[in-house]
Design goal:
1506 residues; alpha+beta; Peroxisomal Thiolase, Chain A, domain 1; Malonyl-Coenzyme A Acyl Carrier Protein, domain 2; 9 domains; 11-stranded mixed sheet; 56 strands
């Protein structure tokens, strides 16, 4: 415990997954961004990932975590660090330096530091992990020599020279040895390097307290400030270790999440995901900060640190030590943590392990006490970025400080079903961000931050809002502009599609002025038209069906409003359970003051109702100002009062007066409770029967009703309905509104009704009581005003009646989800629903969406008042620190990887003939090793081990299954597979089974029908079937598993398959034998596992069970499909060949189902594969993105007879049961002659990212490219594929067999850019051939190779003639370029980066340097762009000459330059070089390039002497 003066946080900076700077970090937190991804290539090798493999230290069952790989380029030269020293330095030290620099910039720059640098220190939390630099050193020193020793022991005939060749080749892959950089591996240098480079002369050291390290560092820094030894301290944590050894430790402990999701505080939290990152804060004494006018994010008012001491285990967290640390911090702050309003936010340690969360919630309940009123928020940023180990505490502290600063309570992810232990605390997690209301007691907003370290070291920090907010030294003005809206209109959808069939820039340029009136009926509107939204719009328009609002895109082929005659209604919500008004900018635009809402407690009819009323009126005023005048208004529950005021019946000031003087307690039915049920009103009435204590209060929608009654009785009904599978929840309202129970308490309402002055309606008002417009007679209005509180809300019936009366557009004016009730009610009718309020943005911005939506559907709103807001908003804000993003790409990319080393190809022949005699040409290495086993026992054992390992370590493509096996399952021992085949084992005590094979063989020789299940299309006469990539269908694998089970248990047939998990494709060329294991679980169930690829439990029985009835679908919910079945194959929407083409008829399709006819093919598994094809059609038709899918599992398949023979027709019925961004789940029935033959439950597909370009190449590779052909004659490709699986698919589609072998021989780090270069080169060559009149040219027909000097060249393959041509390739970062010509050419691409002046001088001669300086001086472009042009031009000429720069760039002299051309002279010959600037497309890291290309000497042939 430390008692101290308050300490201010005046600056902060971060580098975490998905967030290179503070702004993006906060934005990701508030927006709920999940930055967890799969392990990037090069971090560790995929062979370590084996979720179903043996439990060994070198195998892990999880491969998802938080990574920063996309953002690891830093400009280190400004710190005086030379690029040549970076490779030997721990990357985390350099990252810490960058983040520390940014944190000081955020605090105001150098001015925040005292003149006496002895009074500035830095303390960083850092663990003693095997970090990337140490890994490389260990590989060089230990592993290289271990390889040599093992080879010497296995093959003593190897001489020292050859062993040294192996060692040297191994070491060479680690880069050059640099003894002077070894000091960079000293752990404490993470802090010392910061102090050295930034000239901080106070204390500088690291602390290691496991996961509590960074908060312990903050505690140390606070004590330095409190003792007066320092005036400014930097404190934080750094962790950039994803070495496989760390993963191995967590895997062996079972601490990693088997589901590969980190869910802190969730009921089913099953483990942690490892993250990485760095965060640093700048601390000053609060008094000093206020004196100096610093911006203060938050105040550190107390810290506490304690250990568990003696406890039952070092590995299990002990609440005792945690409680002591937390209480110490609050005691230091002079506060009672259990007092009301003591805390509004707790940033939990939240590891998402069962033991960790349980212990922490015990601590929280003990220290902070139970709930007493509204619950405070609890969360963990680990749900966004993973567990950043020693940096975890600072990640949480910065999140909490930003929450205080922005007065926003942030959400926590993946906590939809909170841990029950939270009920004993005063905290609850939030699913969405919401404003942080100031405590009513006047206390400051306050947060606590936990960090509990492995081994029992615990830390806690108390933060609070500063009592005063000094003027920030960096204050400035922020000018706001409305978001751009793209409007397009055409006579029909085809016309719109034509407008969109251009480059994004051309589409944007063609957008209509929002003030322009148009007559065309087909319209498109996009708010903030990003590349992704434009892609989505193209797909929606091509489908030709209305698209209303998802992703801020609206499209209508024909209008609902305007000339079409549809009417518009305003709908006002009532008391919503979620009420977070977002109206600050809107109120300023209207010139009004938003006075309510901060204390509008949910369920408080007075204050909550007043805020709802004011919000609705404000939105009504706003829309009418924009020319949106409703044809009627209506409300839900007490929202009808707002409708009455906006419709003119009541004067707004009278309603205000009533609500202001209203006592909420006067209108509550004691003991009453409401509950919502996922049932129709008729179903609810059937359940209630003759009961009078509980009544129907709301008929909201076809799938939602509400009941009201005594709390206990309502709770019982909810539980009973849940038991029947009905969703139900008790709500936080106690008013008894809309029920007869309210009658004794209605006097205040009656008096109000009698005192209100009634006016004629200016806008018709509809009643949800009578399901009709309000009457005109005053007496009838007064009566209905009271009736409406005693009778059910008939909202569903009212919406249906309004639709029948011609209303087509429904605009929600208020918070909540009222629009979803309209959508549910009108799910089968064309209509528009849009809300004028959204929780994600201020209502002023949301009005842009409303105006866009109404215009698209034929309305004529006036957007001019919104456009007039441009530039008027001025909000004081701290000037941002120099952009960390701007620094990206201006220097050295740090290598955070720790992958295994592969020897270069030329070094792999040094052992030829040393093991087992001479090598057989073309014989695989493992086969040679197996042959050697005949006379080397050690080699035999090694061969068996490697054969087994190889089957597991194939690179994983597609989805995977969890590692955990159901309890009680008996595992079969698995050993090396050696001929002869052995029977798979069954547990002791199980009935003896006949022999089953030890492995199953898959190949096109045995299974020729697989040639019709090839992923990739090649030229019709293509001789190499491997290039087509024949894959064993998942359903064929399932069929084989069933056959094996039947073989293992004779006399029984497979009647069902359970728990199918599909982990990896089985490739059929070359043929492969996959090890097989069979486990008899019970008398009728057998688990069959194809090692590393698939598994299932097969149920066996003497006979099939009787089937259920076939499903039926309401014809009103479906339509005729747009495609014919044969088009699926002729137009290449499906890749399947004739023996798998069984979809014969597309019968009907609906929003959640599809029907078709299948004709059973003859190939094993093909009939079930056709089911997946029909599901694929639904995905293509109904979804606009992520439409590439592959099956990953099935919960259950039940069979009710033998498989129908080939040629039989079956009806296939598919019901979609769930769709998320990454998965799709469906159930199916196959009906044969009126009887269900097979039923599938829980068929799960994984959805992959793709785009139109990739899909076009998949369908017609001979006529499409992944690259973009530039008019200047070169091709460029950007790495648009987001994951390893997609990259592997693209690689196989683009490369032929020999090229794929070369790709596999590369290290994982090199593969990405090498592939980009090959794609660009092939596309450039194919483009040249197309220009010369060639027909289809497939990527595999063009091979790009390198000659002995490394220069690329292209050759035709398998009969393709390309002639004499020259190819030049370049690639950088995420971009590859290439040029192909019938003559000399050269091309280069370089990232625009700032270079030291010494680099510029070294690359240029004296005259050239003078030209360079003069060019920069006369240009608006900076020196970085111009030097990149000069350098790229030199490289392009050197490539054209076939020599490369050879380390002598100054020999290539630029003698003339403008922004489009340069002239380069070498050896007296002048070369004209053209240059162009290029940027990464959206979705990739922000990066700018220069491309330079040349086609020989200049046109004059001029030679220059020197």
């Amino acid at each position: 415990m430390t008692t101290r003066t308050p300490i201010a946080i005046v600056g902060m900076s971060v580098f975490f997954p998905g967030a290179r700077d503070l702004d993006s970090y906060w934005r990701n937190i508030v927006d709920g961004v999940d930055a967890i991804t799969e392990v990037p290539a090069g971090r560790w090798d995929e062979e370590f990932y084996a979720p179903d493999g043996p439990k060994r230290a070198d195998r892990v069952y999880c491969r998802r975590g938080g990574f920063v790989d996309q953002d690891t380029e830093f400009d280190l030269a400004r710190f005086g660090i030379m690029p040549t020293s970076v490779a030997g330095t721990e990357p985390d030290q350099l990252i810490a330096l960058q983040v520390a620099h940014q944190s000081i910039a955020d605090a105001g720059g150098e001015a925040v530091l005292p003149a006496d640098r002895q009074r500035v220190g830095v303390v960083l939390g850092r663990g003693g992990y095997l970090t990337p630099g140490l890994v490389r050193l260990d590989q060089r020193v230990r592993t290289a020599n271990q390889v040599v020793r093992t080879l010497r022991e296995l093959a003593p005939e190897l001489d020292d020279a050859r062993l040294e060749q192996v060692r040297a080749a191994f070491a060479d892959q680690l880069g050059p040895e640099q003894p002077e950089s070894a000091i960079g591996l000293v752990p404490n240098l993470a802090a010392s390097r910061v102090a050295n480079r930034l000239d901080l002369r106070g204390p500088a050291y690291t602390v290691d307290a496991a996961c509590a390290s960074s908060l312990v560092a903050v505690d140390h820094a606070v004590r330095e400030l409190g003792a007066g030894r320092c005036d400014v301290m930097l404190a934080g944590g750094v962790h950039h270790c994803h070495d496989i050894t760390l993963w191995s430790v967590f895997s062996q402990l079972g601490a990693l999440s088997p589901s590969e999701r980190i869910r802190p505080l969730h009921r089913d939290a099953d483990g942690v995901l490892i993250g990485e990152g760095t965060g640093i804060v700048v601390l000053k004494r609060l008094a000093d900060a206020e004196r100096d006018g610093d911006r203060v994010y938050a105040v550190v008012s107390g810290t506490g640190v304690a250990s568990d001491g003696r406890s039952s285990s070092l590995f299990n967290p002990d609440p005792g030590g945690q409680i002591r640390a937390v209480r110490q911090a609050w005691q230091a702050a002079g506060l009672d943590p259990a007092a009301p309003d003591a805390i509004g936010l707790l940033e939990a340690h939240g590891t998402a392990t069962a033991a960790g969360d349980r212990a922490e919630l015990t601590t929280v309940a003990e220290v902070f006490g139970p709930a007493d009123g509204e619950r405070a928020a609890i969360g963990s940023v680990k749900s966004n970025i993973g567990h950043t180990m020693p940096a975890a505490g600072i990640a949480g502290l910065i999140k909490a400080a930003l929450a205080i600063h922005h007065q926003v309570l942030p959400p926590t992810l993946h906590c939809d079903d909170p841990n029950p232990a939270l009920e004993t605390t005063r905290f609850a997690p939030l699913a969405e961000a919401r404003p942080w209301k100031a405590p009513q007691t006047g206390a400051p907003r306050r947060a606590g931050v936990n960090a509990f370290g492995f081994g029992g070291i615990n830390a806690h920090v108390v933060l609070e809002q500063p009592a005063t907010v000094p003027a920030t030294r960096t204050a400035g003005l922020v000018v706001t502009e409305p978001e751009r809206v793209l409007r397009l209109a055409a006579p029909d959808a085809a016309g719109l599609a034509a407008l969109l069939d251009r480059e994004d820039s051309a589409v944007l340029a063609a957008g209509l002025d929002e003030r322009t009136a148009v007559d065309e009926p087909a319209r498109l509107g996009i708010v903030d038209p990003t590349e992704r939204r434009l892609t989505l719009a193209r797909k929606a328009v091509l489908r030709g069906k209305p698209w209303r609002g998802r992703s801020d895109v609206w499209f209508s082929p024909s209008p609902l409003l305007g000339a079409a005659g549809g009417r518009t209604a305003f709908l006002f919500p009532g008391l919503e359970a979620e009420f977070e008004p977002r109206v600050t900018d809107l109120a300023a635009w209207l010139g009004q003051e938003w006075t309510l809402g901060s204390d509008a407690r949910v369920g408080d009819v007075g204050r909550h109702g007043a805020a709802v009323f004011q919000l609705g009126r404000m939105l009504d005023t706003s829309l009418r100002r924009l020319g949106v005048v409703p044809d009627a208004v209506a409300g839900h529950s007490v929202g009808e009062w707002t409708a009455m005021a906006c419709g003119g019946i009541h004067a707004a000031d009278e309603v205000d007066a009533f609500l202001a003087g209203f006592d909420p307690d006067a209108l509550q039915v004691p003991g009453a409770a409401f509950a919502v049920l996922g049932m129709t009103a008729d179903e609810v009435l059937q359940v209630l029967g003759e009961r009078t204590d509980v009544v129907l209060s709301h008929d909201n929608a076809p799938n939602q009703s509400m009941i009201c009654g005594p709390e206990e009785a309502v709770g019982e009904i909810v539980l009973a309905m849940r038991a029947r599978g009905v969703i139900g929840q008790v709500l936080p309202f106690r008013s008894g509104f809309h029920t007869p129970m309210l009658a004794p308490y209605l006097d205040p309402i009656r008096r109000a009704a009698q005192t209100y002055t009634l006016h004629p309606q200016t806008t018709p008002v509809w009643s949800a009581t009578t399901v009709a417009p309000y009457p005109d007679e005053p007496e009838a209005v007064e009566e209905l005003f009271v009736r409406h509180l005693l009778e059910p809300v008939r909202f569903r019936l009212m919406i249906s009646a309004m639709y029948d009366a011609g209303f087509r557009a429904f605009v929600q004016l208020g918070a909540g989800q009222l629009g979803s009730l309209v959508d549910s009610t009108l799910s089968h009718q064309e209509h528009l629903t849009v809300s004028a309020h959204a929780s994600a943005r201020d209502s002023l911005a949301q009005l842009r969406r409303v105006v866009t939506a109404l215009w698209v559907d034929g309305g004529s709103p006036d957007c001019v008042p919104l456009l007039a807001t441009a530039g008027t908003g001025t909000t004081p804000a701290a000037a941002p620190a120099p952009s960390a993003r701007a620094a990206a790409g201006r220097g050295v990319r740090l290598d955070l990887g720790g992958a295994l080393v592969s020897l270069p190809q030329q070094a792999r022949g040094v052992l030829s003939g040393a093991v087992g005699g001479p090598a057989v040409t073309g014989e695989p290495v493992l086969a040679r090793l197996a042959r050697a086993g005949g006379h080397h026992p050690v080699a035999a054992e090694l061969s068996a081990l490697l054969h087994e390992t190889a089957s597991v370590a194939n690179e994983l493509i597609g989805a995977r299954a969890g590692r955990a096996a159901p309890a009680g399952r008996v595992a079969v021992p698995r050993g090396p597979v050696r001929p002869p085949a052995r029977p798979a084992a069954v547990p002791a005590g199980a009935p003896a089974a006949p022999a089953v094979p030890a492995a199953l063989r898959f190949g096109v020789e045995e299974m020729p029908y697989l040639l019709d299940h090839c992923f990739f299309r090649q030229r019709p006469d293509w001789p190499d079937d491997a290039d087509r990539w024949p894959i064993v269908p998942a359903t064929t694998v399932i069929t084989r598993l069933m056959q094996v089970a039947e073989q293992a248990v004779p006399g029984r047939r497979a009647v069902a398959v359970h728990g199918v998990r599909l982990q990896k494709w089985i490739v059929a060329i070359p043929a492969v034998e996959v090890p097989l294991s069979v486990t008899r679980l019970t008398a009728d169930r057998v688990e069959v596992v194809l090692e590393g690829t698939s598994r299932a439990i097969v149920e066996l029985a003497p006979r099939y069970a009787d089937p259920a009835e076939p499903w039926t679908f309401d014809p009103a919910t479906e339509r005729t499909p747009a495609l014919r079945a044969e088009q699926l194959y002729t137009e290449r929407w499906m890749f399947h060949g004739p023996r798998f083409q069984g979809v014969s008829e597309l019968t009907a399709i609906g929003d959640h189902h599809v029907r078709g006819i299948l004709t059973a093919p003859g190939a094993p598994g093909a009939l079930m594969d056709n089911v997946g094809q029909l599901l694929g059609y639904w995905i293509m038709d109904r979804l606009t993105e992520r439409t590439t899918v592959f099956p990953v599992g099935m919960d259950r398949i039940t069979f009710h007879g033998a498989e129908p023979p080939a040629g039989e027709r079956l009806e296939c019925l598919i019901r979609i049961t769930g769709v998320t961004d990454t998965t799709l789940v469906a159930d199916m029935q196959l009906v044969h002659r009126g009887r269900v033959w097979a039923q599938f439950s829980g068929w799960a597909d994984r959805r992959f990212d793709t785009d139109q370009g990739i899909r076009a190449v998949d369908r017609f590779p001979g006529a499409n490219t992944l690259s973009t052909a530039r008019p200047e004659g070169w091709s460029v490709v950007h790495e648009r594929w987001p994951d390893l699986a997609t990259r592997e698919l693209i690689m196989r589609n683009m490369l032929g067999s020999a090229e794929r072998q070369g790709y596999e021989e590369l290290s994982p780090v090199r593969r990405r850019q090498w592939l980009l270069g090959r794609i660009a080169a092939k596309d450039a060559v194919r483009g040249l051939l197309w220009d010369e009149g060639a027909g289809d040219v497939y990527p595999a027909e063009v091979a790009v190779r390198n000659d002995d000097t490394g220069r690329p060249y292209a050759r035709g393959v398998h009969g393709r003639e390309v002639g004499d041509l020259v190819v030049s390739i370049a690639h950088r970062a995420e971009t590859g370029v290439a040029i192909a010509r019938r003559g000399p050419c050269g091309i280069d691409v370089e990232v625009v980066t700032e270079r030291p002046r010494t680099t510029v001088a070294a690359a240029c001669g004296a005259a050239e340097l003078a030209l360079f300086d003069a060019t920069v001086a006369g240009s608006a472009e900076d020196e970085a762009v111009w030097f990149t042009r000069f350098w790229a031009a030199k490289e392009a000429v050197a490539k054209q000459r076939g020599t490369g720069l050879r380390g002598r760039p100054a020999d290539y002299e630029v003698v003339a330059a403008d922004d489009g051309r340069l002239r380069v002279v070498i050896e007296g010959a002048a070369h004209e070089v053209r240059v162009s600037r290029l940027t990464n497309p959206p979705g990739l890291p922000e990066r700018e390039y220069v491309v330079a290309w040349t086609t020989g000497t200049d046109e004059t042939g001029e030679r220059h002497g020197h």
